[in-house]
Inverse folding.
């Protein structure tokens, strides 16, 4: 029962991920939180695993995606285009993972730590595919909301391509999708090209 | 590419689950939505599968839980203690599933339909365990928020026990947890016993 009590307490701790706000917008026009993002990206894995570069163990992909953001409960979310913050974030997230996973029974703690490390380092076909999806979703949502969060942060096409180039390592087919979406966003005028100081609205 | 386009369009349709509001409250005190609930219950499966009544294929459990509520995009959420609404809801949800899953490539459509049917009917150890978790989470959240949604709907202990009795079919250990939580909620005065018209607050 002690074991079960710890697991249930941890489940309640995880509830806090529902309050971590991301920069992305849902199609209904509000900021997305990290818990619903984690669901969306896990469902994406179910739908898109056939497009992974290498064959993947779907269970491993789902487990990684379901927990990939839980460190944000302690460390907060970092915007993917904020380069400075991203570097400091790495150390903060590692400490957060240690603190959080220590709440679990030892075997589970080790399992979660391994999943999180594998995802963070992209050291397996499963991790690389999972990372591709984690990149793809914000691009999809941005294009579906006419670049709302890109516009708010003055993000340019070259940045989107640079930050998402690793999609190719997990799925060449999805990298092709990202490139097409970026070109479409530029053509429709809601993603600035280099040289432009701001994307022309409308 | 036609196949991939359909999958991506469906992913964007699924975004709408983030706007389906449930009666449960998050620990931060706002209504939970069905997308973040689906994440929470999937993570619960990762943590608690060792307590399933029979050995379960975790991948199957996760896939069922990730999609179990997507029909609500079309059919809306029904409060678990609203008996009349629940009966009408069954037919509505079946129609919603048909409509939604028809958007997928045929093999995927069949896979999602099978997962959803298996979950709804509780016809496998995986489905019964998944259903246990889907029942457990609202009870956990209710107790952690001093019975907030129970109080709002005048729900009594006997109703909570009756509606959640099927937890035992998926996990006797979790059914024991539910019974203890109900007793605790009664003792602490935020879940009415039979005979009381309303739970005494405080
Ligand atoms: Ca993410």
């Amino acid at each position: 029962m002690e074991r079960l009590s710890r697991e249930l307490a941890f489940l309640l701790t995880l509830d806090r991920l529902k309050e971590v706000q991301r920069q992305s917008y849902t199609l209904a026009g509000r900021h997305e939180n990290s818990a619903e993002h984690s669901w969306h990206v896990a469902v994406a894995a179910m739908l898109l695993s056939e497009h992974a570069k290498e064959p993947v163990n779907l269970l491993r992909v789902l487990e990684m995606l379901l927990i990939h953001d839980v460190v944000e409960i302690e460390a907060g979310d970092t915007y993917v285009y904020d380069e400075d913050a991203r570097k400091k974030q790495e150390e903060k997230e590692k400490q957060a993972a240690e603190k959080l996973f220590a709440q679990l029974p030892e075997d589970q703690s080790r399992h979660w730590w391994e999943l999180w490390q594998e995802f963070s380092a992209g050291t397996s076909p499963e991790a690389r595919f999972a990372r591709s999806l984690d990149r793809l979703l914000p691009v999809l949502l941005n294009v579906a909301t006419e670049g709302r969060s890109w516009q708010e942060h003055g993000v340019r096409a070259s940045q989107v391509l640079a930050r998402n180039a690793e999609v190719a390592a997990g799925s060449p087919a999805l990298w092709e999708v990202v490139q097409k979406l970026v070109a479409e966003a530029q053509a429709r005028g809601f993603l600035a090209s280099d040289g432009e100081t701001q994307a022309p609205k409308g």
Notes: The interface with chain B takes residues 4, 7-8, 10-12, 14-19, 26-28, 32-33, 35-36, 38-40, 42-44, 46-48, 51, 58-59, 62-63, 66-67, 104, 108, 137, 140-141, 144, 173, 177 of chain A (CB under 8 Å).
